[in-house]
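Q: Could you write out the predicted structure for this multi-component system? I'm mainly interested in how the pieces pack against one another.
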Amino acid sequence: MSKGTVVLAYSGGLDTSCILVWLKEQGYDVIAYLANIGQDEDFDAARKKAESLGAKKVFVEDLRAEFVEEFIWPSVQANAIYEDRYLLGTSIARPCIARRQVLIARQEGAQYVAHGATGKGNDQIRFELTCYALYPSILAPWRIPEFYNRFKGRKDLMDYAQNHPPSDIFCMTKNPEDSPSAPDVLEIEFSKGVPVKVTHLKEGTSKTTPLQIFTYLNEIGGRHGVGRIDIVENRFIGMKCRGIYETPGGTILYHAHLDMEIFTMDREVRRIKQGLGINFSELVYNGFWYSPECEFVRHCIAKSQENVEGKVQVSVLKGHVYILGRESPKSPYNEELVSMDVQGDYNPCDASGFIKINAVRLKEYNRLQNYSFRS
Amino acid sequence: MSKGTVVLAYSGGLDTSCILVWLKEQGYDVIAYLANIGQDEDFDAARKKAESLGAKKVFVEDLRAEFVEEFIWPSVQANAIYEDRYLLGTSIARPCIARRQVLIARQEGAQYVAHGATGKGNDQIRFELTCYALYPSILAPWRIPEFYNRFKGRKDLMDYAQNHPPSDIFCMTKNPEDSPSAPDVLEIEFSKGVPVKVTHLKEGTSKTTPLQIFTYLNEIGGRHGVGRIDIVENRFIGMKCRGIYETPGGTILYHAHLDMEIFTMDREVRRIKQGLGINFSELVYNGFWYSPECEFVRHCIAKSQENVEGKVQVSVLKGHVYILGRESPKSPYNEELVSMDVQGDYNPCDASGFIKINAVRLKEYNRLQNYSFRS
Amino acid sequence: MSKGTVVLAYSGGLDTSCILVWLKEQGYDVIAYLANIGQDEDFDAARKKAESLGAKKVFVEDLRAEFVEEFIWPSVQANAIYEDRYLLGTSIARPCIARRQVLIARQEGAQYVAHGATGKGNDQIRFELTCYALYPSILAPWRIPEFYNRFKGRKDLMDYAQNHPPSDIFCMTKNPEDSPSAPDVLEIEFSKGVPVKVTHLKEGTSKTTPLQIFTYLNEIGGRHGVGRIDIVENRFIGMKCRGIYETPGGTILYHAHLDMEIFTMDREVRRIKQGLGINFSELVYNGFWYSPECEFVRHCIAKSQENVEGKVQVSVLKGHVYILGRESPKSPYNEELVSMDVQGDYNPCDASGFIKINAVRLKEYNRLQNYSFRS
Amino acid sequence: MSKGTVVLAYSGGLDTSCILVWLKEQGYDVIAYLANIGQDEDFDAARKKAESLGAKKVFVEDLRAEFVEEFIWPSVQANAIYEDRYLLGTSIARPCIARRQVLIARQEGAQYVAHGATGKGNDQIRFELTCYALYPSILAPWRIPEFYNRFKGRKDLMDYAQNHPPSDIFCMTKNPEDSPSAPDVLEIEFSKGVPVKVTHLKEGTSKTTPLQIFTYLNEIGGRHGVGRIDIVENRFIGMKCRGIYETPGGTILYHAHLDMEIFTMDREVRRIKQGLGINFSELVYNGFWYSPECEFVRHCIAKSQENVEGKVQVSVLKGHVYILGRESPKSPYNEELVSMDVQGDYNPCDASGFIKINAVRLKEYNRLQNYSFRS
């Protein structure tokens, strides 16, 4: 008799295949679920493999559009970056994948959901917190002693699960050294802080749907070796670990959005929003996409983006993204106000008062401390 | 009869030359003061020019070593960056220059210090807040109506003071497109968060004094077109303005230090220190280097750097800085702990408890909100 | 010939009466404007005084309801408190008063608005920043040299403007020592973070409009000597100054709202909201009620209050506010979950995993530092 | 044969007595350890009880002085307060108690330490994180299934462990309604942010050692019913729970220190320190006293206290603490600067410039948004 039905997040690879077989051996009915979020994968072959291993049903779900619109776009608005470097690619994929998995489990009446993430990583947390937030029960074979003890000796499985050699790890980006020596110049148009159009200025071609825009930026960024990093990061679990990532399209968007945001947003609004963006990044990295605080932060950030509108011109070359210029109908940038030629409403004498008042505190401090200084 | 003695921060250029002449016309004795903080300048020619314009005395001061050690190094420790992009080059030069100027004024018994910074910019504030914090009186000709009204019609002076055309603006960095196609690979060694040695790995040459290290990194970064940005920034005065900067050495150090910091510092210490770094950057940008709060923040940041020690390998190519690897005697990075092969002290089952407790709050929220989600 | 029309924020007191007369002497037409925000004042007498001093028109405006609903309520939601002590009473009155003044100026075609706030205080800033944000030109006599030089010798005017002796300063609150020795017990009902009903539990009487609620809480709080403080505070202008305040109703609301907020709001949402509340308090204290950042912060805080709903019972006695209990249909407080008797969904073993994972970082730190400790 | 030696944090109560017996039954040698941190307890009776239950050794340790100096004083410097209300009494006792326990374990060669904190609370975490940070192995009976399953039916043990009825819960403070109707007026002298002397102004008596000072403030505060709160708080474990606390001495110190801090500390230093104090409070509440980040924060906060020096006069009456006045040799409070009579160095016209420059941003925003407002 069946112990119940499990929806397994299946990748087609060796590790989740082992889990599929093991779950069946333990007496579960297994529904395999493959999420297409844009990775390079033969989904038909994976489907057949799952069926041949005994999956009762196989779901291959195209989540690419919702991944871009509902997960990547809010991250672009947030200028999301973990520990000043990591653009959170995988981190935002997990809640998107798990959300659909929970939906399938509900619809199919499954008692369990399972994943193949290992017991020392972040993905187990991102996956499971999403499930707990959206749905009750979970089964995570990698942390079940019977499971990981059985596979302990299987060097091939463990090897697979380990960090792959760096040479193989990049599948989207060219080595910058081997990339073209002429730049591609793009114009990215934003509205409410998300890209609504990308134009290749020389070729005159444009992309306008979210999925097309993101795919195209990945392609251009990849061609020029943009967005590769080799870092040590702090996992939620309390360990430092090495991570090698490539985020070509995300890197272009990060720079372009940052430029448009500072161009159009009030300085003090942005200072507050910058703090919220740091909150957002940590929450998402740690797996709290579906949490009251992340929902709240996303709402606030979206509010801040209402006037982030305009066009940024960027040049992409040899791993680097250069901002060439920007324009916006909503920027408080005021060439006349800044100009030295035009005095206008601005009276330079006011600056004296401004400085003197700012110095009141400093003078008092000087009086008390009798500032000494080396020369 | 003299109205008193003014120490003028003199650049050798047209604008401060005009000020020098005007101050003399107004009846002041003028001491010209030229600070060498590493800029490309013919100091002898400038000295002669000042003398010929009637300066009573001329001081040419080599501040390069103290600029690097007392101003740039703390900024490296802070990972100082304003509005996520600007590495604060000019901002940290002002307090260094003004400090010496105040010292000369004291030593020479001068009643005034003056500068040539314009009335809409940040530099006037940085300059004057330093002086108010360290010394009493100030004279700032650009904001004196008699001065700027007189020169209003002098198109040449105004032109000079305006933003120079971008083509001329870069004097330290090559255009990345024209830079070498082979990288330079450096090893930068840190102790207490500041660089103590830079080695060119292929050539085997090293630099070990702060000034040599910084000069060398400027040279290498400049050769590869590193650190050019074209941004719009928010001035303290409340305006948005365009800025074009080049910070070759600073950009290399920013990336190398960030890498070493995350490698060696506890995650939670770094989260707090990250906030202090943002405080530091805003304070310095706004001219508050000499303030109780900036002093306090510098102290705290320096404390956080005690274990930021080790070597980072970086590759510099075509405007980009790549981190290749790092090592440290003081990193909590523990390959064994992270490894999938070695279980050690870490029990993967603990992660279940960790996740479940983190989910307590989320489940309660779910219970209350009855989370609905689109599919 | 008239130099133009000024709308003067007129208090009926000596200082603004002087200003009224002086403005007329200088050749301005003066419209006197008295705002009723709930202060104890004979508005008819003030109107007559203004007319007798030569005001062209006199506006007495009852702003009490809009002051409570549009200014006090958002401050309650924010738990607004400056430097951990000051409940911002005057600070939030200024933008309310200035907004109507600007409106009158527009409607009457006046070129100027003026106020009687002194040149070293905060109120001048709060007043003027509101005007600049909403309307162009301003005239502030206290900072005009002709004005303050003329009145320098007038000891009586200066005396009046100075801090009044503490014995006179409290007009709303009784001395706690002289207050009743039996408490009043109230139940305050909140919806979306603002009070919607106050009931005196013993008397069974209720108040339900914002103005009635606030007036009643002032009365009850005043009777029991609640909300008196004697502090030194940091003005925006950079000085420390002494302030003596009484905020009886505001103090009761501060405690009751805080209790309901923590009861109903997710812990992590509240941590973020706490930071926004600090931002809000500083902005309002410094005069930035009408600014893009304060608008943004108010929006975010209001969003956080959606579930702040329920009833708090408070006892008011001898200057202190005691929270007796609370109930809410929307609290994640779950007696069963917390109880030691009921295990329910919660497995105490999970806490072991939670603690061990939280300790991973600490153990590594111990390994590196070799923690020594005194005994 | 013994399974090893356990040092048990023993309270003398029913719950830890049960644990003692149970540990012995399981085959452990048990060392009972009672910490005296100032609680009202018959330590001799508890020692005898432990011996009679079979403890191999009993340690009764007087930690009162080190608790005050090393744990309470830093919390006073931090103005530590969790969720704006809870003064952290128990939270800071745990690391103090656990530190000595670890020391005894080392000295006695014990393999285990154990405590009686329950599996849903905060104390288990505070206790265990301290041990993990300072020492390796731990045994926590309350979370061992054999233990809590066995005692599940024992209603008396569970009852004891539950929240005690509120009527009994206050042992240090009088009901404010029953407290004296005449105040006690104290002068508290601070140096480097910690109290160094307390004087009863009427009686003329003083206390000068940390333990005496704190004990005396507890006595005075207790007599007047100061520091009782009834709150719902957010536990680290993710639950909301009710807590009833009394902190008489801590409440007096909180208010007195806050007053002296704002009086003597630069405004902007304090803004940064305020954030660090919030960090500190959350860390300590969550059990991270011994962590790199809490160590770092304590260091920074201590640095901020260098000039927090002077005397505060406070009146304590009917549950409330009133600040009467303060004096300090190190305050930047400058009566002359603030005074309306003395113009001194301060030019009121500078305020115009200050305000106008602060308004530049607001005017630009107005221009873009065309601010509309209701009347």
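A: Regarding packing and overall arrangement: Chain A has three domains: 5-66+82-162, 168-327, 335-367.
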